[in-house]
Design a protein that fits this description.
CATH superfamily of the largest domain in chain A: Dehydroquinate synthase-like - alpha domain
Helix content of chain A: 40-55%
Oligomer: homodimer
Number of strands of chain A: 10
CATH topology of the largest domain in chain A: Dehydroquinate synthase-like, alpha domain
CATH class of the largest domain in chain A: Mainly Alpha
Strand content of chain A: 5-15%
Number of helices of chain A: 14
Shape of chain A: globular
CATH architecture of the largest domain in chain A: Up-down Bundle
Radius of gyration of chain A: 20 Å
Number of domains of chain A: 2
Chain lengths: 393, 393
């Protein structure tokens, strides 16, 4: 249990009648708003019209940056920053999932500097984030937790880099969490989003340190929440209870609380970022494929008790079983949940990924950690290649 | 599940090496600090000297308000507000438990108005809280959660009133949670503080609405945390793990998260406030005596499933038992925990309380609710008297 500092200032409006407050919240930050969004889905569900109406009612000037990609790219950050400077934007309104919000965070920072936006992610340069425009978000996908955290991940297709960075200035000021806005999320995207949330929980849960018991109960509770509600949301897309639980879990899985007392790097995320940087796959799907293999790779006498406990508290395994059997069954149950129940593909070849880039991807995954990711088990470049290989079948 | 707005901006420095940051945090708010505290315990444990040293190192001017009472009184609020005005105080530093922090919050508000401090609690007047001095707190008792919430309860011994009120301006800016500062808390006060935390959890958990599953898992996890660690902290006062878990649970039991999706009044707190207003007993002890009787009083076909679930998830009762038996055993287990394990007195007479004021106390308890407390079960004045009577033996 490490000393820590925790602060999360994001104001959350949660529920199906809260969007009426968008204009009121935006107005607090000025007159000129840049609306950022991805593809056409927010138009199809009528959310675009609703948001524009609220912004107009508030008497604000509206500018737009559409077309933010899944795995958002540095080009969109540059475009957004240029628009902010040109139109003297006061506040950003991100409407979408984690990709749109992540991209908008770095637009908010890039709009306040003269250097190129990618410099923020260049390990050699790493300029400070001293200022950022305020951000309001409207969430449409329960997955990344970007609505309540201070980080964003950006891809650079020229270099095949996908990098994340945090800054306390990048917390959204206000986020709107309306579970009904996720009713149209497909079963596949619901599965991927749920796998992403589950992975955030696993990254913090699987630690060799001495975590705080109370926080363990929160993590295990959120894991049970995903196991319970993801399949319901896939079957009954307009089940409010299921969508609401997934949405609130997406925020609390990665808003600083559950990882505060840990001092450990994440493992599956750096490995997955290289996959989606090269192959542009859905982040949550990559995480799902990696997670059970990573746990299997990590299993030894030291890690076994924690994996066994995961099986008991999350999947309800019989605590009287021998520990090794519990741990093995826990990994089985995890795979069963991700691949059989959520229906995600089990192997990389099923996503058209072969071994050709494993070596360079593994090298990049360990690069920020000077060669070894200090996670649940320390992972060298060769270890990462081994885990990628385990995902081939 | 109701729509809600959640925001908690308090910055928490948690751990045993964080006090060194006090000066740095205070300086952000100005030069003149009023240190508020209770009896001599912070001097006995060396905390007073430590805090004064940090304030001096930061080059700040120090003023003091000692002697804040348990069940803090409006007189102390008035004294503090006067000191703030006289010395043009920039920031308040509350060092102590919930009583000191509660009192300091209302000093912070009263320092910014011309009217009498009790007006804030006068149902006829109820002036707005438009401004408050910034507050930094150093917690020495895990109980009320005042370190991370926006409320404070103040007693008026002239009228035997004890009243609480919230305002978003009364969140501490920064709270220091150092579990080692609670090593000297006596087993009895540890028991009372733990009963207070447990009661906060029960007040939100026992709802007839449809609560959010994920939040239920958090509440149950914190309940298990108290059941697990309160006895350890009583037996081994310097057990860091136990003290840390109790401390972080005290904050999360009442910082706005677990009650956000509910729309229901608390029950035991209004009943207890009348007890401690008249008899000046320790708040957590009063809550402990009331809680099992209140649950027993509330039990009917509608509330039974929730009480049964509490027994399964918190006390590990066998889920295959009939529901009525589960619920009855859950209430038994609660009493066993509070009275046998924590060693608190089981009845009001053991605290020298007789029936003489039951009628007037019950009338006051339901007064803010126009006659009926809309809780787990609606409670009229007669119901409150019945529950008080159940606590006689």
């Amino acid at each position: 249990m490490h000393d820590f500092t925790f602060q999360n200032p994001v104001k959350i409006h949660f529920g199906h009648e809260k969007l009426a407050l968008i204009g009121e919240e935006l107005k607090k930050f000025g007159k000129r708003v840049l609306l950022t969004y991805g593809g056409g889905s927010i138009k199809r569900i009528g959310l675009y019209d609703r948001v524009v109406e609220e912004v107009k009612k508030a008497g604000m000037e509206l500018y737009e940056l559409p077309g933010i990609e899944p795995n958002p790219r540095i080009g969109s950050v540059r475009d957004g920053a240029r628009l902010c400077k040109e139109h003297n934007i006061d506040v950003l309104l991100a409407v979408g999932g984690g990709s749109t919000i992540d991209c908008t965070k770095w637009i908010a920072a890039a709009a306040c500097v003269d250097h190129d936006a990618w410099d923020f992610f260049d390990y050699e340069k790493w300029p400070p984030v001293n200022k950022a425009l305020p951000i309001v978000s409207v969430l449409t996908l329960s997955a990344t937790g970007s609505e309540m955290d201070s980080g964003g991940v950006i891809s650079n297709p020229e270099t095949n880099d996908k990098r994340g960075r945090l800054s306390p200035l990048l917390f959204p000021k206000v986020s709107f969490l309306d579970p009904t806005l996720t009713y149209t999320v497909s079963p596949y995207q619901t599965a991927c989003g749920s796998a992403d949330i589950f992975s955030h929980l696993m990254e913090e849960y699987f630690t060799t340190g001495e975590p705080m018991f109370m926080i363990d109960t929160f993590i295990e509770g959120m894991m049970r929440t995903i196991v319970r509600y993801a399949p319901i949301a896939m079957r009954e897309p307009d089940n409010y209870e299921a969508r609401a639980n997934l949405m609130w879990a997406s925020s609390w899985a990665i808003n600083g609380l559950i990882g505060a007392d840990k001092g450990q790097a994440w493992s599956c995320h750096p490995m997955e970022h290289e996959l989606s940087a090269v192959y542009d796959i859905t982040h949550g799907h990559g995480l799902a494929i990696l997670s059970p293999r990573w746990l299997e790779f990590c299993m030894d006498d030291e890690t076994m008790p924690r994996i066994a406990r995961f099986g008991i508290t999350v999947f309800g395994l019989d605590p009287t079983l021998p520990q090794r059997e519990l741990a093995l069954r826990a990994i089985d149950q995890l795979g069963h949940f991700l691949f059989d129940i959520l229906g995600l593909k089990r192997t990389l070849p099923e996503l058209d990924i072969d071994e050709s880039h494993f070596d360079s991807m593994a090298a990049k995954a360990v690069l920020p950690y000077k060669g070894t990711i200090p996670g649940f088990r320390p992972l060298t470049k060769d270890d990462v290649v081994s885990i990628y290989r385990m995902c081939m079948k």
